[in-house]
Amino acid sequence: MDVKNFFVEMLICTIEAVDIILIYLTLIQKLYYFKKEKLKIVLFVLIYAIFSSWISISVPTVYHTFFIMVLVVMVLSMLTSTKIKVSFIGVLAYHIYFIVFELIAMVLVSNISGVNFFNAEELQRIRFPFAVSVKIAEGLLFMATVGRSDKYTLNLSDSDINDGNIAYWALNMVLMGLVILSVNYINSNSVNILLYNTLLFLLFVFFFIIGIINYRKMLELINIKHKYQVKEEYINNLEAIMDIIRREKHDFSNHINTVYAMCVLNKPDTTEKIKNYLKSSINNLNSSYKFCDTGNTYIDGLIAVKSNYAFENNICLDVDFESSLEAVDINDNDLVAIISNIIDNAFQAVLKDTRERKKVVSLYGYIENNKYNLSIANNGPMIPEENRTRIFEKGFSTKIDNKKDHGFGLFIVERLVKKNGGDITFFSSEEETEFLIILKLKKGYYEKDS
After folding, report:
1. What percentage of the chain has pLDDT greater than the value 70?
2. Most buried of 44, 274, 331, 431, CB within 10 angstroms?
3. What is the dihedral of CA 243, 247, 253, 254, to 10 degrees?
4. 363 has which bridge partners?
5. Is the pLDDT of residue 1 over 60?
6. Residue 74: pLDDT band by 50, 70, 90 thresholds?
7. Where are the chain's structural domains?
8. pLDDT given at position 343
9. How many whole angstroms separate alpha carbon 335 and alpha carbon 377?
10. Burial of 19 by CB count in 10 Å (0-12 exposed, 13-18 middle, 19+ buried)?
11. pLDDT tens digits, residue range 366-410?
12. Is the distance from CB of 170 to CB of 134 less than 8 angstroms?
C-alpha cells in the first residue's frame, strides 16, 4: 500500500467510524455522548481508523470484517458503559444495515453509470468518491428514519464492573493474537514495515488510554456500589429501629393499662407504686436503645440497632463521642464495617464470659495528636498470648462451631483501616480488651490537645 492509498483508506475508515458511533449511540439511546463525552468519541474514531488501516496490511482480507467487529464490540462496550451483549447486538445491526445499503448503492450506480464493480481498475478509480458518498448517505438516511423514533432503540441496562474488565482483557487477547497471526502474513507479502510498526504502536498507545479510562470507570462504579451498600445497611438499621418502636408501642399500651388498673383498684400506696412502676419502665426504655449524634448518620443508625441488641442480652453499651465523626477522612461504608465488626466481636466476647459480673462494651471517639481515635473495649475474657500474633490473620478464629465461616471480621477490619491510611492496635488484660483505631483527619480539622 502506497502513501496515497493509505491516506485514502484512513479517510474512508474515519468517515465510517463516525457513521458507526452515530448509529450505535442512537440505537442504545446515548446520543448525549456527542456533547458530554467528546474525548471518547474522538478516541473511538482514531482507534477504528488506525485499526482498520493496520489490519488491512497485517492479516488476510477474509478475516478483516470479523476482527473489526470484535474490536468495535469491545471498544464501544467499554467507552459507552454498555453490556457486551448489547454492544454486540448494536454492532451486528449496523453491519447488516451497511451491507444492505452498500449492495443497493452498488446496483444503482452500476445500472445508472455502467460501472463494473468486479473490474479492479474501474473499482480503484471510483472507490474513493463512491465510498465517501455512500458512508455519508448511510448516516444521513439512518438519522432521517430510524434516528427519529425510539421504536428501534435497544432499551437495555448499562454494564457492570465485570463487563468492562472482560471487554478490556478480551480486547488485549485479540490484539496479541492478531500480532502473532500477522507475522507470517507480512513476511510473505510486500508490507511496509515502518507503516506496520507505526500503526501498531499507535494502537497500543490508544489501548493503554482505554485501559486508563476503564480503570477510572471501574473505581467510579465501585464507589457508587459502596454508597448503595451503605444506604442499604442504613435502611436495614432503620427497619430494625421501626421494629423496636412497634414493640415499644405495644409495651406502652400494656403499661398504660397496668397503671389504669392500679388507679381503679386504688389500693394503699397506689401513688407510690405507680411512680416506681413508671420509673422502672422509663429506665428500661432509655436502656433499650440509644440515639446518638456521632456526626455520621449511618453510625447513628448502627449504634441504635446495636444498643437494642445489647439491652436484650443484658450488656451495658457505653457510647461517647467527644469529637464528631465528620472529622474522619474515611469512606462511610468502610467506617460502618470497621465499627460493626469490632462491636460484634466485643458482644461475643462478653457473652461467652462465665464470670459473674456486669458485661460492658464501650465505644469512644476523640481527637488526639491530630488523629481521630476510636476506642472499642469490652470486659470479656483476655485474649490468650498465643493468639495475639494471629488475631488479624485471614481465617483465624477461636470459635469451634462453623469455623470455616468465621475468622474474617478482624482481617477485614485491619485491611479497611490500612486502606484508609490508619492503624489498629489492641491491648488485652484480665480486666479489659481494647481495640484502638487511629484514623486520619480531613483537611481543615484540627484540635489542640487539652
Report:
1. 79
2. 44
3. 180
4. 319, 376
5. no
6. confident
7. 3-225, 291-450
8. 93
9. 17
10. buried
11. 999 899 999 999 999 998 888 888 888 876 666 545 444 444 678
12. no
Question: Looking at residues 318-335, what average pLDDT do you find?
Answer: 90
Longest dimension (CA), the chain: 120
Q: How many CB atoms lie within 10 A of CB 245?
A: 11
Residue 139: CB atoms within 10 Å: 20
Whether residue 208 is predicted with pLDDT greater than 70 in this model: the reply is yes
- What are the cell numbers at 382? 483476655
As a whole number, mean pLDDT of residues 117-132 equals: 75
- In degrees and rounded to multiples of 5, residue 435 shows phi and psi of -105, 125
* Residues contacting residue 323 through CB under 8 Å, at least 6 positions apart: 365, 366, 367, 372, 447
Strand partners, 375: 364, 436
Q: What CATH homologous superfamily does 291-450 map to?
A: Histidine kinase-like ATPase, C-terminal domain (3.30.565.10)
Cell 472529622 belongs to 327
pLDDT of residue 215: 77
What pLDDT was estimated at residue 2?
Answer: 59
Question: Contact, 274 vs 289, CB < 8 A?
Answer: no
Task: Supply the pLDDT for residue 131.
Answer: 82
Whether 98 contacts 24, CB under 8 Å = no
Q: Using an 8 Å Cβ cutoff, are 89 and 72 in contact?
A: no
Ramachandran region of residue 363, left (φ > 0), alpha (ψ -120 to 50) or beta? beta
3-state secondary structure of 362: strand
How many angstroms separate the CA atoms of 67 and 178, rounded? Answer: 9
What would the grid cell of residue 406 be? 468465621
SS3 at position 373: strand
Measured over the CA atoms of residue 327, residue 332, residue 336 and residue 339, the dihedral's sign is negative
With cell 450505535, the residue in question is 24
